[in-house]
């Protein structure tokens, strides 16, 4: 399939365009500039590939969890582009894309959810690739290493020293910290995720709270 993937779930802007076996990609630290940089960079990829948006088969987007603002940017742009070109959309969970980038047979992915919490999920990769259960929101000190898993991925392990603190000697980090849009392309091409009409695009927040209250912030500091 000819696919354009957009991920703005983290501080990175990650884009990928797959066309007839060729991959065009943009992956760069963006801070808070996703809204102003995403469309120009998409235009640049389309120009490099020499293809019009309407010639694609679908628009793929990172549906979360991740930065609330970033998720809305990716979803909104995917919907707008898809509506304008008469294309469907495909939503890919952020942790699934991180797991896709690893070569481990089994994997625990933990991403920084801010507010002193992490998003977690366990995966079996390889030919029988699957997420073994839902994506959860946990306190770092409450995360337990599943039996038989020794490899991990995600920036949660880098940002929270208390995460699996007593088991650090048992694990090996894959080096994958965040989602890359090229992984979204691979997952979309696998057929595991449905094509949807743009109006049906949904975000996967996992958490429904944007920030801590002042009382909660003080409790953490204390």
From TrEMBL:
Principal location: cytoplasm
GO term, biological process aspect, one: tRNA threonylcarbamoyladenosine modification
Subcellular locations according to the entry: Cytoplasm
CDD domains: ASKHA_NBD_TsaB
CC per GO annotation: cytosol
Domain Gcp-like: 29-125
Assigned keywords, A-Z: Cytoplasm, tRNA processing
Keyword tRNA-binding part of the UniProt annotation: no
First and last residue of the signal peptide: none
NCBIfam families linked to this entry: T6A_YeaZ
The protein's name in its UniProt record: tRNA threonylcarbamoyladenosine biosynthesis protein TsaB
Biological source species: Aquitalea aquatica
Lineage, uppermost ranks: Bacteria, Pseudomonadati, Pseudomonadota, Betaproteobacteria, Neisseriales
């Amino acid at each position: 399939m000819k696919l354009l993937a957009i991920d703005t779930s983290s501080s990175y802007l990650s884009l990928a365009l797959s066309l007839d076996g060729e991959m065009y990609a943009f992956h760069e630290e963006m801070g808070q500039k996703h809204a102003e940089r995403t469309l120009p960079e998409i235009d640049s990829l389309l120009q490099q590939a020499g293809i019009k948006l309407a010639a694609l088969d679908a628009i793929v987007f990172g549906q979360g969890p991740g930065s609330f603002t970033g998720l809305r940017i990716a979803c909104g742009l995917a919907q707008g582009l898809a509506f304008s070109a008469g294309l469907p959309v495909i939503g890919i969970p952020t942790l699934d894309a991180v797991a896709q980038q690893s070569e481990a047979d089994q994997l625990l992915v933990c991403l920084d959810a801010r507010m002193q919490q992490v998003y977690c999920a366990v995966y079996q990769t390889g030919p029988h690739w699957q997420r073994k259960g839902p994506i959860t929101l946990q306190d770092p000190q409450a995360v337990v290493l599943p039996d038989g898993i020794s490899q991990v991925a995600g920036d949660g392990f880098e940002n929270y020293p208390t995460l699996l603190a007593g088991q650090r000697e048992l694990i090996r980090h894959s080096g994958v910290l965040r989602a890359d849009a090229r992984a979204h392309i691979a997952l979309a091409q696998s057929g595991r995720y449905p094509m949807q009409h743009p109006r049906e695009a949904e975000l996967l927040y996992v958490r429904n709270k944007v920030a801590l209250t002042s009382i909660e912030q003080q409790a953490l500091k204390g």
